[in-house]
Design goal:
Elements lengths: L2 H4 L6 H10 L6 H4 L8 H33 L12 H37 L1 H6 L13
Helix pairs in contact: 2-4, 4-5
Length: 142
C-alpha cells in the first residue's frame, strides 16, 4: 500500500532516509567551529553564526532520526501480548529521548544567536570608542 493510500499524514520512511542522506555531513563540525580567536567583533559574529548553524543542523538531524527510530520500533510486535498499540507506546517512549535532545540542540542554537546580540549590547561603548560602528540599514524610496 502506498503512502497516499494508507491515509496517514506522515511522509514515508524513504523520504526521511533520503533527506537524512542528502543533508550535510556533521563529520566536518571541526572545520565549521575552528579554534576561536575572538580578535574583533567580526570573529565573534562568525563563531556564533557557525555554532548556530551547526546546532540547527544537529537539531534537524536528531528530529529526523527520532522519527525514523519511532517508525522502525513501532513495527516490532510485543512478545506474548495481544494488546494493540503496545509497540507504538514503547517506540514513542524510547524515541522521546532523542526528541528532547533535538529540542535542546534547537535551544542551544538560539543561545548562540543571543550571545552575539548580548555582546553588541554590553560592549557597545567600547566598540564605538574603537571605531567599530553599528551597521545602519539604508532606507530609500524606490
Amino acid at each position: 500500500m502506498s503512502h497516499a493510500e494508507s491515509g496517514t499524514d506522515r511522509a514515508p520512511l524513504s523520504f526521511w532516509r533520503k533527506s537524512l542522506m542528502t543533508r550535510r555531513s556533521l563529520g566536518n563540525a571541526r572545520q565549521i567551529l575552528t579554534d576561536p580567536e575572538f580578535l574583533n567583533p567580526e570573529s565573534i559574529r562568525t563563531y556564533t553564526n557557525a555554532g548556530r548553524e551547526l546546532l540547527r543542523d544537529v537539531s534537524v538531524d536528531l528530529a529526523v532520526g527520532s522519527e525514523l527510530l519511532r517508525a522502525v520500533l513501532k513495527e516490532i510486535p510485543v512478545v506474548g501480548s495481544n494488546m494493540p498499540g503496545g509497540s507504538r507506546v514503547r517506540a514513542f517512549t524510547i524515541a522521546r529521548h532523542i526528541d528532547i535532545a533535538a529540542e535542546d540542540a534547537k535551544s542551544a542554537a538560539a543561545r548562540m544567536a543571543q550571545c552575539y546580540a548580548a555582546f553588541l549590547k554590553h560592549f557597545a561603548p567600547e566598540l564605538e570608542a574603537a571605531g567599530h560602528k553599528k551597521p545602519v540599514p539604508k532606507f530609500t524610496f524606490a
